[in-house]
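Sharing a chain and its predicted structure for anyone who wants a worked example. Both blocks are below, sequence first, tokens second.
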Amino acid sequence: MFDKLKQLSKETAIYGTSTIIGRFLNFLLVPFYTNVLSTDLFGVYSYLYAIIAFMNIAYIYGMDAAFMKYFSLAENDIHKKQNFSAPFITVFFTSIIFSLPFIYFYKDIGNAINLQSEFYHLIIYLVSILTIDTFSLIPFALLRMKNRSVKFAAIKILNIITNLALNFILIMKYDFGIEAIFISNLAASTLTFTLLLPNVLINLTPRFSKEILIRMLKFGLPYMPGSLAAMMVQMISVPILRELTDDATLGIFRANYKLGIFMMLFASMFQYAWQPFFLNNAKEENAKELFSKVLTLFLLTASSFWVILSLFIDDVAGFEFMNGFSIIGENFLSGIYIVPIILFSHLLYGMYINFQAGIYIKEKTKYFPLITGIGAITNISLNFVLIPIYGIYGAALTSLLSYFVMSAGLFIASQKFYPIKYEYSKIAKILLMCLVIGVVYYSMLFNGGLTLEYKLLILVAFILSMFVLKVIKVSEIRNLLVLLKK
């Protein structure tokens, strides 16, 4: 038992660390792109990659999840190879079949999605990237099932480093435009699949099982609506904002949206630790009390992080280095003040992750797609209502409200089956102070009075309020310091 838990902890750390490092390395492209691309070109890039995200769901149609389910049940190596070969071969050929019409009719498709004629050829790159990335999904799942976490992480990070290096070389040395983004991604994806190919060939078998394929399709296809709903919550604002405004506005929105990565990484780090933690401690006598305390500590830490980032993100993003380069290019800084809203959206998603415990413990996972679907409907509806009125602020508020609906929905469902007595008083005080600081921040911002001195005063006021409202007690700080010294 202990050895298995130790192995789980090790793999969780590797997968979690590699994912976080990967996301951060990918983020490095944002400062680069926003300093070398115009706002409208960044908007085109954002729009096409949103399309890739949605198409990926159709290309894999739940077969990666189905593979992991049935591979784990296979009794011997022959059955394991059959359970790998059936979904891999099927996805390989369906990806090619799906892609051929897009490549042949790329001009018509470019026109249909309202793309400027000079960018029609990017459809070919887009579909090629999608196809090769889909080839790699089940081989990556195979590495996970065989506990090859180090190889999994190494290939993922190598993909990102290759992508980064080629972007810098093609744009800075050879003066490529937006095409460099797609060429670099295609080369990195091709390298990734090449590195996975030996594992693929070793695990392929000529004995193709229709029975296994049918069973996997029955399991995997129902995943598509939930996956589509989750993607809508994250990305549906992209095509809607572009339709209601223009490429430049979309570019400004997405560049600043990506600054939310700091809270997203915090939530991701928590998620990787939280899932094995609550599953391993679910049977403990004081489990619910423990889970209650975790939510309070998460919210206290995340809200402090939110206040600091929100107050100083414009100073950090506008800081110039390397011959006038900045974290966000000067032409994109007009949208920097949506970042506090985006950051708080990810904070709410962190609360959503907290509330997952009861649903998993009581095996009521059927509520996940329902709640995510409600979040998607909320997102679509509010985007059409708020964007025409508030522009990119409307899109940011829609993201926040969608995650609020999802968090509230999961809280209600979780409490129904696994009631936890949370520290509601402390939670309410923390959220109230965040609301007060948000109102003060935007009031001073729009009235031109948000100076560095006032930002520091707001930060100090938040910290003091946590003590005055007894969210944090001095005795708890002393106990913590004593533990750290041991």
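Comments welcome. Residues 1 and 483 are 28 Å apart (CA to CA).
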